[in-house]
Amino acid sequence: REKIRAVGGENGCSGRVEVWHRGSWGTVCDDSWDMLDAAVACRQLGCGPAVSALGEAAFGKGTGPIWLEQVECRGTELSLQDCWARPGDSGACRHK
Q1: Where would I find the SRCR domain in this sequence (predicted)?
Q2: CATH of the domain at 27
Q3: Which domain holds residue 10?
Q4: Which of 24, 58, 75, 93 could be a cystine partner for 54, CB 3.0 to 4.6 Å?
Q5: Between 32 and 60, where is the model more confident?
Q6: How many domains, the chain?
Q7: C-alpha to C-alpha distance for 67 and 55, rounded to whole angstroms
Q8: pLDDT at residue 91 tops 80
Q9: Domain for residue 38, yes or no?
Q10: Residue 55: what pLDDT?
Q11: Does an H or E element contain 41, and which?
Q12: pLDDT digits (tens, 9 = 90+) for 21-54
């Protein structure tokens, strides 16, 4: 199971979601990010229920590869890797 982290927020339970993949941290495209996706990320981080799902680089511009795009969770998954997502190398998403 791949690791995730939240960066740029007040603590490890708040911030831009990043995924460890292929030996480096990369971002998750926020174009379709919603509360169901946030609920799964918060669960995976051990942070309890999601409070909000912010987009538009609310926690600062990401850097590095964009590993996931169009994440679509049902909200019941144990990790983001259990959700449907398009691989982030399609070029459809850009850091803002």
Answers
A1: 4-96
A2: 3.10.250.10
A3: 4-88
A4: 58
A5: 32
A6: 1
A7: 16
A8: no
A9: yes
A10: 72
A11: helix 35-45
A12: 989 999 888 778 899 999 999 999 999 999 998 8
